[in-house]
Amino acid sequence: MYDWVASVDSMAADFAARVKARKAGVSNTIAHRIRELDRWMESATRRASPAAGDQFRLRFGG
Known about the structure:
The chain is mainly alpha-helical.
């Protein structure tokens, strides 16, 4: 139902934090990883929250 979901792997956010830290040239500290996971969770929660019309995106039956 969510086309923006690429993975539900528990380490996906951690991997993304590691890549982002490397690209930015900063250490991938626990604090950095927590900030990235918090940012991801806030975004995911906002995007997954029901909105008017969402029920029409659900598919029922075979």
